[in-house]
Amino acid sequence: MHLVYVDDSGDSRHGTTLTALIVPDDRWNEVIAAWLGGRRAIHHEFGIPTTRELHANELYKGRGKYCETEGQERLFSTPRRAATGRIMLSALAAAEGALVVTIATPCRSSTESYNTLLRWLDGWAEENDTTVMVFYDGQQGYGEPCAPLSPAQARAEWDTALRASTP
User: Fold this and answer.
1) Statement: residue 135 has pLDDT above 80
2) For 71-79, which contacts have Cβ atoms below 8 Å and span 24 or more sequence positions?
3) Closest alpha carbon to 88 in 80, 115, 107, 102
4) Residue 29: other Cβ atoms inside 10 A
């Protein structure tokens, strides 16, 4: 069994890019440990909180605030942003068994691109005599875990999550 985490590029004006992190289930803990080690390293080096989601578009184009303090943010130059990406990719590369696959399609529809990726994953799984469990990045459920939501609000949040995950 392989666990597959999928995320999209976020910009489909000129096509869609999906990236999948494929991890054998018996290596999951090793991959997570490597990822967390990378997160700790960029926190120590640049002051980026370990909980701050990294977006390549923001990171490499100098957008978005990543650091904990204004002083750290002022020093977070283009070379340091690039170093952040290298640190994270190096940490992930050190985890044995992890495979990163990216597909790009001219489709502007994430549903079509997602179907293309699923067909590729099906072929890959058959070729490797395994099964895959796919996790697609996006809204999962509703809001904060302890947020006081009325039943109608909770239903609306779940409806939004389900619509967003239709692929």
Assistant:
1) yes
2) 72/46, 72/47, 75/46, 76/46, 76/47
3) 80
4) 11
